[in-house]
Write a structure and sequence with these properties.
mainly alpha, 4 helices, 124 residues, elongated
Length: 124
């Protein structure tokens, strides 16, 4: 599919802004919940959430620099986002496997949509 340059730029800017917002929310949320993490599972989820924030920021960076690392970073970001969303409901709230799966599926769909926007925006 061939898109006009202005459309590609808008898609790239939109995806980049979403990733920057995601990096800010996951990093700030992870840093806030770090002192409240009591159990091992809460600490693991917080660590995955912080990794997701770092990978979000790195995903933006690999759109413009070190582009060959972009697909691997975005794949790791999608996995960390899915894991953090799915596990968070299990370790921080009343444990419910169905809610954890719904959160994980929603996060995976969001990650796929953002990666698709990036791919369209970066297409030559």
């Amino acid at each position: 599919m061939r898109l006009r340059p202005i459309v590609r730029r808008v898609l790239l800017a939109s995806a980049t802004l979403l990733l920057i917002a995601m990096a800010w929310m996951t990093l700030s949320g992870g840093l806030r919940q770090l002192p409240r993490s009591r159990t091992l599972s809460q600490r693991v989820e917080t660590t995955v959430q912080l990794a997701c924030g770092l990978l979000s920021a790195l995903s933006v960076l690999t759109c413009f620099r070190w582009r060959r690392w972009g697909p691997a970073v975005r794949g790791a970001w999608a996995i960390s986002l899915t894991a953090a969303a799915g596990v968070s409901s299990l370790v921080w709230g009343p444990p419910s496997l169905i809610i954890g799966l719904v959160f994980a599926a929603g996060a995976l769909l969001l990650a796929v949509a953002i990666i698709w926007l990036l791919r369209l925006g970066l297409a030559a």
